Automatic annotation (TrEMBL):
Highest classification ranks of the organism: Bacteria, Bacillati, Actinomycetota, Actinomycetes, Pseudonocardiales
Protein name: Coenzyme PQQ synthesis protein B
Domain Metallo-beta-lactamase: 48-258
Annotated keywords: PQQ biosynthesis, Transport
Natural source organism: Prauserella flavalba
Leader peptide range in chain numbering: none
Chain's role: May be involved in the transport of PQQ or its precursor to the periplasm.
Lineage top rank: taxon: Bacteria
Pathway where this protein functions: Cofactor biosynthesis; pyrroloquinoline quinone biosynthesis
Record-stated family: Belongs to the PqqB family.
Gene3D superfamilies to which the protein is assigned, alphabetical: Ribonuclease Z/Hydroxyacylglutathione hydrolase-like
Entry's Gene Ontology BP terms: pyrroloquinoline quinone biosynthetic process
Length: 292
């Protein structure tokens, strides 16, 4: 299985257009790499590809990789999209995929029922929205779904639809035995998640925040620690943080994605970056390719 990390930043990317924090400024100064918003592509055979989430940067992401280029006259290797959740930063890219004929989009039922792109972009070429089974085949790969939480996107208001609103995926290649877990939106370490990750070649994990109160220090406005908590992203640091939960396993690589521009791990000289490495985790840049 080939895995292309098209984007590794949380909503806003790095730099974020309206942010002049140290991390965003480092990219503007050319001393740190830019990161586009979290999104990846997977393929069993290198000829047909599936997206995991559809970021607002999707057009640039899709046009930057030879593997994702269309064949003449207009035959894209993109076959479908799996959504982990309905957040705008994971679904706005669907609008830009409106040219895609016959796209299949898998999402938790509550997300499939509310995501704005379904009613708008999905009408152009009659996309299919298959029911999200617990386990299904995907172009030679096998997908298993793990319900993560009931965290709704803001636009869904107080929708009474049953969750889960957020899921994680495990994608296995039966031909190689390689497997990937993708969990970019984890509010707390879910019950049963260790088992879901057991034996995976690689886990791509929610790296939004290092500290629980990070956004209060880095941004203006009403984004205090309460609001950060409400965003539903388990911080890396602390006794219950994700770094403490990562199992050092010889067979599993732990990679952080969906990294917010406030996160000090983005600075390689920071003690937070050192703590991440010390825990056995990695911080891959955009365009990292994994062969699993
Ligand atoms: C998130 O990851 O929590 C969302 O992208 C934030 C949001 O846009 O509400
Ligand atoms: Mn996000
Ligand atoms: Zn910033």
């Amino acid at each position: 299985m080939r895995v292309l990390l098209l984007g590794t930043a949380a909503g806003g990317g790095v730099p974020q257009w309206n942010c002049a924090c140290a991390n965003c400024e480092a990219v503007r100064a050319g001393t740190a790499p830019a990161r586009t918003q979290d999104c990846l592509a997977v393929s069993a055979d290198g000829r047909t590809w599936y997206l995991l989430n559809a970021s607002p940067d999707i057009r640039t992401q899709l046009t930057s990789y030879a593997a994702l280029a269309p064949l003449p006259p207009r035959e894209s290797p993109l076959r479908g999209v799996l959504l982990t959740d309905g957040e705008l930063d994971h679904t706005l890219g669907l609008f830009q995929l409106k040219e895609a004929a016959g796209l299949r989009v898998w999402a938790p039922a509550a997300v499939a029922a509310t995501v704005p792109a379904r009613e708008i972009a999905g009408r152009y070429h009659g996309w299919e929205w298959p029911r999200l089974e617990e386990r299904f085949e995907l172009g030679g790969l096998v997908v298993t779904v793990f319900p993560v939480s009931g965290k709704r996107p803001k636009y869904a208001g107080d929708s009474a639809l049953d969750g889960p609103w957020v899921v994680a995926y495990r994608i296995e290649d039966p031909a190689t035995g390689g497997s990937l877990v993708y969990a970019p939106c984890v509010a707390q370490w879910p019950e049963g998640f260790d088992d879901f990750c057991a034996g995976a070649s690689c886990v791509l994990l929610d790296g939004s925040f290092f500290a629980p109160d990070e956004m209060a220090g880095a941004t203006a406005g009403d984004v205090g620690s309460g609001a950060q908590l409400a965003m539903g992203h388990l911080p890396m640091a602390g006794e219950h943080g994700s770094l403490a939960r990562i199992r050092r396993s010889r067979d599993t690589r732990w990679l952080y994605t969906h990294v917010n521009n406030t996160n000090p791990v983005l600075s390689p000289a920071s003690p937070e970056h050192a703590a991440l490495l010390e825990a056995g985790a990695e911080l891959p840049p955009d365009a990292t390719e994994l062969l699993l």
